Amino acid sequence: MKNDVTATCEEGEGRLKIIAAAEKLFADHGFDAVSMHAIATAAGISKANIYHYFSNKDALYLAVLQGASAALRARLQEAMDSRGPASEALRHFAVSHLRHLLARPYLVRLFLRELLENGEPRARDLADAGLADLFASLVGILRMGQEQGELRSDFDPALVATMLLGANVIFFQSRDLLRQYPEVHFVDTPEEYDLAMVEVLLQGIRQNPQDSSS
Prior knowledge:
- The chain is an all-alpha fold.
- The protein is built from nine helices and no strands.
- The protein folds into two domains: 1-54, Arc Repressor Mutant, subunit A, CATH 1.10.10; 61-204, Orthogonal Bundle (Tetracycline Repressor, domain 2).
- Helix content is 79%, strand content 0%.
- The longest helix is centred in the middle third of the chain and has 43 residues, at 105-147.
C-alpha cells in the first residue's frame, strides 16, 4: 500500500499534468474550442480523473490563470524583498517578468487570446486570478520610490507600471519582427533590453537644458 506522502505527491503531479496540458491547449485553440476529453488525452489520464481535481472546465481554467499569476507575483515579491532602492526593484522585476514571459509562451498566448476574443469577462477573470494584485504591488514600488524622494512625485505610478509591463509584452509579441530590423540590436539579449527600457523610464529622453547649454 502506498504511504500518505507518496499518494500526496502523485496527487500533486496529476494536478500539475492536467494544468500544463490545459494551458497549452487553451493557448493554441481558445477556451471554447477545447474539450475536457482533449485535455485528458494530452495529459495522459482519464477524463474522470480531471473531475477528481476540477469540478468543470471553468474551474480548471481559473487554476491555470491562478498558477500563472502566482509565479509572476513571486517574481515581484523577490524584487520587493531585496530592500534596495525602488529603481533596483524595478530593474529586478522587469528582467524577471520578461524572462517569465519568454519561458512560458503558451501561457502568454492564452492571456492575449482570451483578452482579444472575450474582452471584459476574461479580463475580470485575469484580474481576480491575481494579476490585479501583481499590478498593485508594482504600483506600490513606484509609490515607495516617490515617498522616499528617489523618484519624481509628479507622475502617475499606474501609468509607469502600465508602460513597463506593456513594453515587455510588446517585446514578447514582436521579437521575430524586430529581428528583421537592422537598427535593433537587443532582440537576443532580453536582459539588456529590459535594463535599458527601465533606465529610459527612470531618466526620460528629453535632454536636461543645463546639459545642452554646457
